[in-house]
Hints:
Layout: H1 2-7, E1 12-14, E2 30-34, E3 41-46, H2 50-67, H3 72-88, H4 90-101, H5 105-125, E4 133-134, E5 141-149, E6 152-156, H6 164-175, E7 179-183, H7 189-205, E8 213-215, H8 220-229, E9 235-239, H9 242-254, E10 258-262, E11 267-271, H10 277-289, E12 299-305, H11 306-321, H12 341-356, E13 360-363, E14 382-385, E15 401-407, H13 411-419, E16 423-424, E17 426-430, H14 434-441, E18 450-453, E19 465-466, E20 469-470, E21 477-478, E22 487-495
Parallel strand pairs: 1-3, 6-7, 6-9, 7-8, 9-10, 11-12, 11-17, 12-15, 14-15, 17-18
Antiparallel strand pairs: 2-3, 4-5, 5-22, 13-14, 16-20, 19-21
Amino acid sequence: MDFLKTLGVSQHNSGTSTGLWWDSVQAENKIPITSPVDGKHIGSVSTTPPELYEHIIKTAQSAFLSWRMVPAPKRGEIVRQIGLMLRQYKEPLGRLVSYEMGKSLQEGIGEVQEMIDICDYAAGQSRMLSGVPLQSERPAHRMYEQYLPLGIVGIETAFNFPVAVWSWNAMIAAVCGDVSIWKPSSMVPLSAIATQKIIGRVLEANNLPEGIFSLITGTGKNVGERLLRDPRIPLISFTGSVRVGRYAAEVVAGRLGKSILELSGNNAVILTEHADLALAIPAVVFGSVGTAGQRCTTTRRLIVHDSIYNKVEEALVNAYKSIRIGDPLDERNHMGPLISKDAVARYVAALEEVKKQSGRVIYGGTVLSGKEYESGCYVMPALAEVGKQYPVVKTETFGPLLYLLNYSGPVTEAIAMQNDVPQGLSSSIFTRDLQQAEEFLAQAGSDCGIANVNIGTSGAEIGGAFGGEKETGGGREAGSDSWKAYMRRQTVTVNYGRDLPLAQGIQFDI
Ligand code: UN1
């Protein structure tokens, strides 16, 4: 495992860092990290104890005071260098992501590419943190809006994107003049530790202070909770389940903090009678089995017009038969394991539920056994025929389980089915009919944060704002104007006249 050495990951690793400084490896509070790929122990991580948490916060607070004074394009230059450093470590880091999390090597490397892309994007954004001039109603007054650095951003990321989601937040936050504290999922902290070491090289080369990018590790209950409750952290960006996200939102709102939430999706693809199946089938298969169905944007529901239903079902079953499941580091395989045996148990339980609710599993769904699948985390992807009213269809099962639904009426019927779930992250329609596509995109169309035409639900580019509506949480990260959430907005009015006219024409003579 040369890549572990290249990345500085060893048998025992510290999970607490302020950038250049690392806590020493503690004997107690260690979490063992096991790969879902082969069930082998990769290394352990010592978590962040309360007193060190305080140190991390204090260091971040003092780093913020100097970092916010650095001109934004100079902050962008640091982020640009981080992007260059990530290019150097793209292959080994992608490999670690793949080995620790279980996604295919291509997807692991693709995830690092997303980090590189957001660095380039953020470097450019650093010159464009622009406000708008506004029109004052008073003579000789100038009014405008400006955006200023916010403070410490707490970033809690999920296991399925061990590094990329952090970078969407941390790189944008950094050019905005914020400092960040990252708490990665305690299932995949090694990828975070390796990333922290990579960026440490850039911090060192530029003589930057400690605390601009910090890392803490531990469970959500201990360490994550501390971030949520800490009034010194004005913004929390949380990625994870609706259940935990709802709790996080309540805790942060309770102290009147701000939060960016990126929670569950229940993403559907609509195939109308005018769908080009040559595009649609591969998009649906990648969308549902890619990352073993563990992306927030995974395709979970396929809503197919009656006239093509049988054809689609047959094409899908055939395509699923050709999916190679196994070691994700072996590039011949399409699909690796689920993250853990618990995840496998949840997948199996969901399939049981489908059957109980009178659904029909038409392909796969079994747990794989044998030498290659020793970790116990490998499953066959599943296709299940269900009715739109089944409760199970309204929930997100984080695995490669695709529901097939049919409709017979106009596209509005399919859109209504698509919207009839509590989640609202990603959505897609395949059609060559302009009217259908436009209906899908209009006011009464898809209610999701992402709406794609002739593209699947997953694999969003970083240039767009990423996030969704309803139970998905409403947050937006990465591109477009997502940066605004990481800054405080200020309305400025300057009186350059000799009088003091009051707004609304009020006279107040003294
Ligand atoms: C996630 O699953 O949390 O759109 C993020 C995609 C990826 C990001 C997914 N760019 O599938």
